[in-house]
Structure formats: C-alpha cells, structure tokens
C-alpha cells in the first residue's frame, strides 16, 4: 500500500525448492503469474531464491525496516498471487493487539455498556 504516494514494499523474495512436492504451486506461480506481477509492479524488486529441501515462502522487506514472511506450502498459484498482493498492499507495520474493543481518548469511569446486565 502506498503511504503518501510511496509504495512501502521494497523487495519481495520468492524462495522455493526445485524438487519438493510442497513447492509445486510456487513453481507453477513462477511460470504463469510472476512475470505479469513484475510488470505490474515496476517499483518492486522481485528476487527468486532456490532453497533446496525447505518449504516455499514469500518474504517482504519494507521501507520501515520491517519484514514479513508468509509460508506458501502446498498452495495453488492463485493463492500465492493473492499472498504476494497482500504483502505488496500492506504497510509493513507490526500488528498491535488492542486491550479493549473500544478505543477512546476519554474512557468511561463506569465501564463499557452491555445489554446483559441484570438489575
């Protein structure tokens, strides 16, 4: 995703095994979908990496020095394309777990309202 018009994903590494069964989908992805993905995203550096004996994965490096790894073991080429697109569209920020469902600047002293309270 672009932040102020600048794409945040800088580099995408496609790691695969050339003989493993779990890499069958990513090898088909590299033949069919990867050239079109590279043409549509000229701002992105796409690197293929042979990693024999390991499961395939996609690794994205972002401008804010974060990285994300997505395992694509036994996925179809269309699912791998969707995972690569999600990596491209994300901003690379760390996921922050919220403590409550309601985020407010001025929390209520009485607590959150619920319908299942008995009087």
UniProtKB/TrEMBL annotation:
Matching InterPro entries: Ribosomal_mL43, Ribosomal_mL43/mS25/NADH_DH, Thioredoxin-like_sf
Annotated Ribosomal protein/NADH dehydrogenase domain residues: 18-91
Entries under SMART domains matching the protein: L51_S25_CI-B8
Source organism per UniProt: Sesamum indicum
Source species, domain of life: Eukaryota
Keyword Metal-binding part of the UniProt annotation: no
SUPFAM superfamilies, alphabetized: Thioredoxin-like (SSF52833)
Protein name: Large ribosomal subunit protein mL43
Localization, UniProt: Mitochondrion
């Amino acid at each position: 995703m672009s932040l102020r018009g600048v794409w945040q994903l800088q580099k995408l590494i496609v790691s695969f095994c050339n003989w493993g069964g779990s890499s069958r989908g990513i090898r088909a992805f590299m033949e069919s979908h990867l050239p079109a993905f590279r043409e549509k995203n000229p701002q992105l550096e796409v690197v293929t990496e042979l990693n024999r004996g390991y499961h395939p994965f996609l690794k994205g490096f972002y401008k804010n020095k974060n990285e994300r790894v997505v395992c694509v073991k036994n996925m179809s080429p269309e699912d791998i394309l969707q995972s690569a697109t999600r990596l491209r569209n994300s901003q690379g920020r760390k996921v922050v777990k919220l403590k409550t469902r309601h985020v407010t600047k001025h929390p209520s002293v009485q607590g959150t309202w619920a319908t299942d309270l008995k009087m």
